[in-house]
Amino acid sequence: MLSTLLRHANIWALQTFDRDWIDYIASNTMTDVNRWLNDFIWTYDVKAIVTQITPQNDNAVTIHLLPNQHWRAYQAGQYVQITAEINGQAHQRYYSLSPMADDGTFSITVKKVNDGVVSTWLNSQLSVGQSLKLALPQGDFVYKQQAKVLFICAGSGITPCYSMVSDLLQQQTPVDMQVYAQFSQAKEVIFAQDLAQWPNQGVPVQLAFSQATQTPSPVLNAQNLLTQYPDLLERDVYLCGPTGFMDNIIAALVAANFNLAKLHCERFEAASHDYQGALDFSVTQPSIYFKHINKHIQLGVQDEGKTLLAVAQQYGVNLESGCQKGMCGSCKLTLKEGKISGNQLGQAVYLCTSYPDSAHIVLDA
Ligand SMILES: Cc1cc2nc3c(=O)[nH]c(=O)nc-3n(C[C@H](O)[C@H](O)[C@H](O)COP(=O)(O)OP(=O)(O)OC[C@H]3O[C@@H](n4cnc5c(N)ncnc54)[C@H](O)[C@@H]3O)c2cc1C
Ligand code: FES
Q1: Which residue of 51, 110, 232, 314 has the lowest C-beta tally within 10 Å?
Q2: Other beta carbons within 10 Å of 296
Q3: Is the pLDDT of residue 272 over 90?
Q4: 244 CA distance to ligand 1 middle (Å)
């Protein structure tokens, strides 16, 4: 009873007063008693209350969240780290953010994966009124002002694309965008209403089913990519989906002579890129120049086998990073000179999962 009243009071306060003002009041009255009475507002942590849960289909839900005063603005396509407390254990996972609504809420959409600890818990155990601990929004999979774009997504990979398309549709200047959305079958479709509505708002949508005999549009492959999208080479492609799907699309793009500098990817599963050890550090110790921040580092024998991100951090070069598993793209830089091994797409290097492989390396933003 008391906790329900408190929750309603918190929701009212957050939807009525400026967040900075709440932050000012809370930080100046941060006593043990206040923290004990109301640890949603009197806290230094970013938290959010679950205000609504809506099913997308049998295996995916959209969870609407109202964050506390520590939350900050973000770009469509970015994601948030969520901490789920399950049986006394804390689990961290990432979920893409929908654009923020006028009432201060945002949503995440979670697809249940087989034997998935957190996605199953979020789909079947989480309830309205619970609060979740979050980190601040992050990620580089955001629209970068290109004139023509194509979103290619599959399964839960539609979530960041949904966010970018929804956001771009609100903007004054229309952007030439197209969407290819693939699911295993009709009953697995996420954001079905939006996908049906977008063509009326000027965004052509091709919906395809990989495991059904009847599919509204053909499943994309190397043979039909250019037929389906004749102006493909003029577009920037935003790609997100399961690993196998992404690898097939990347191979199809390469076969179509697509410029990989115009490809923007986000992966939901960790990319495994173990150190192959092509360079012998006892003979050659690489130097790395981070051109965009004008920083040089000289590696030693002890750095063999360490990722580019790890050596940068070790030598005091502050770079953006997120998942540290080759998924989110936050650490991505462009290779200007030299050679690296590991997670590279065209000239794009994912520093957290790649390794120096020549005497001199130049990286730029
Ligand atoms: C930047 C980023 C944004 C993300 N955004 C979303 C989102 O908006 N919606 C969403 O549903 N998920 C999203 N994810 C994936 C999400 O973070 C979790 O990995 C996913 O929910 C599975 O977690 P789990 O605890 O249920 O599975 P786990 O218990 O961690 O894994 C169980 C099994 O499933 C496999 N697995 C893990 N993740 C996936 C996956 N995504 N697809 C298929 N198999 C998987 C694992 O290899 C393992 O075998 C995102 C991931 C990243 C990195
Ligand atoms: S891809 Fe996420 S930090 Fe490198």
Answers
A1: 314
A2: 12
A3: no
A4: 14
